[in-house]
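ARCHIVE CARD
Drawer: 12
Card no.: 0347
Subject: one protein chain, sequence and derived structure
Cross-reference: see card 0346
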Amino acid sequence: MVNLKQLVKNPLKAFGSKSSKDFKPEVFDRHVMTTYGRFPLALTRGAGCRVWDDQDKEYLDFVAGIATCTLGHAHPAMVEAVTQQIQTLHHVSNLYYIPEQGALAQWLTEHSCTDRVFFCNSGAEANEAAIKLARKYGHTKLGIDEPVIITANASFHGRTLATITATGQPKYQKNFAPLVPGFHYVPFNDIEALEREILALNANALRVAAILLEALQGEGGVNPGNVQYFKRVRELCDQHKILLILDEVQVGVGRTGKLWGYENLGIEPDVITAAKGLGGGVPIGAMLCKSSCDVLQPGDHASTYGGNPFVCGVALRVCQTLESENLMANANARGQQLRQGLLKLVNAYPHLFEQVRGWGLINGLVLQPDAPLKALDIVKSATVQGLLLVPAGPHVVRFVPPLIVSESEVNEALEKLTTAIQNVT
């Protein structure tokens, strides 16, 4: 049993008695770099929307690898796909045609507004590919010597040097200067600020090649895009021949109740980046683009592991299962149920909570600015109750369960959360 006080004071001792597998977190910490602020849990197995730790304690998983385990844990379709593909062919070079890659690319383009796909291993790499595409597009199509990419404050686009520069949050950039040049930031959902920035850049002989936005800001606090804002952004991009890139790493592949986040906004982007839910937990990333901006040629970009037979075979099965099990409809229904339950907590604890934000099965419970608690306090208390959650910044508790989550599991999560709030207050 995890001790809540030990969660804060000494994560190592919070494990309590020695596990059946004799897991020693102090040995782990001795050999693994401390680049993560880990919760004192060693998760060892999972099934559906539940996971178990090394003490065999059960948890309802509303983190899903941070919006990654689309089909939950040990889903029969994924087990079958993994087994079949690893027994057939798991990796070859992109120097050769890879049928599984072609099949997945076909599925993605036929189910989106795009025409071509580049495969990589993660969301950050997908955004890196989009940044390179935008810069070459600026040079070769627009004749720009130093292309500028505009992104939003409070955005999150990855942990590589270029993508933390694209990320509009200084806390991720601290101590990593000099950053990559060519990025400018504007407030999210503020069209006047964006228009002013484009005009100011033009006045200084700087031209914008691309605008990179999230359809819904995940790490920035589960902040959905405004429909009218995005429609005007699309108009500005058309007017100035600017590429509109949507980072859908967290919200793509059914998470919002639609296959793509942009479908909630009534516009079409030129480029989409995806990862997380695409592989259901198998590491894969993808940059999708329209043929009109596909300027990359052989030698411009590459990835050793990107799009290998194993990850593409599994990802294709994840996508097909989304359709066959009607999981986007489930995401809509369960998301609505979850938001209704969270709104009851907002009404019950008005001194703590301000509102609920989200689409489908990505939702945020927003704390009051002067609340006596932080999101992390609630997440820790929920962990003790057997509910895994994750913060989205200091003032938002994020809920991103697998898309297979059931009505009874949402009710169970709300009950555990209510107890957790009562205990921590």
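Annotation on reverse: The chain has two domains: 4-74+327-424, 76-324. Residues 327-348 form the longest helix (22 residues).
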